[in-house]
Design goal:
Distance between the termini: 58 Å
Number of helices: 6
Strand order of the largest sheet: 2-4-5-7-6
Mean pLDDT: 90
Helix content: 25-40%
Shape: globular
Radius of gyration: 22 Å
Largest sheet: 5 strands, mixed
Order of helices and strands: HEHEEHEHHEHEE
Low-confidence stretches: 1-29
Strand content: 5-15%
Number of strands: 7
Length: 266
Amino acid sequence: MKRPLRGALTALSALLATVLAPTTATAATGPKAPADFVALRAVDPTIRQEMRYTTVHNFVGERVDGYREPLCILTRPAAEALHRAQARLLREGYTLKVYDCYRPQRAVDHFVRWAQDLGDQAMKGEFYPDVDKSRLFTDGYIAEKSGHSRGSTLDVTLVRLPALPTRPYVPGEPLVSCHAPRRERFPDNSVDMGTGYDCFDTLSHTLDPRVQGVQRSHRLLLKNTLESLGFVNLAEEWWHYTFKPEPYPDTYFDFPVADKSLTRGD
């Protein structure tokens, strides 16, 4: 009786291993990007990258779901157009710096869960000091879908050369309003755009008439340069641009932000 039982268990174990092995491999690999998604650094390594959602220095206050590496991923047409913009700006003494590029749907879902948790106000002092969190959906600051998930949208700014480093954010440090004077805000090495990045405030509207002088000229330099090369600005956010025509205008991807997601290893 013992030998048949032992043999049956051995056969069952072998069968389970055969059936489960492919499933395990698929789960470990995860979803992949289409072949025309690339790492920006492979197209233009001179563009600075400060990928905020891989850090805790963002409006959520923690690393965002789906951001496994501090990596800018874009569709190739968007990356190549950004490379052409960089070439122009370098001649004028500036470099581009990206804060966010492709954003997986799971990250957008993370934003939605955070916005629904009205008890979490940890980063209000910097990113939405004058906006009631209960209005983030109504006022359009948070949505269930994002153009970033289609792969041709990015958040970008200008840095004057030679670029100074941006000091690391220290969790728990006192927060300063994103629309305070530049000398009081978190010290970003970008030029003064009138507000910090991801500032939930009408002052972030690209052509807000209250933003004048050098701040307005910086916004217009970025806007005019990018729009001349096929990008379209979101009027409510000076940092937000989408390359047109988009290769995937109706598709919202969910592969992780990681080198392994790129099918060609770019």
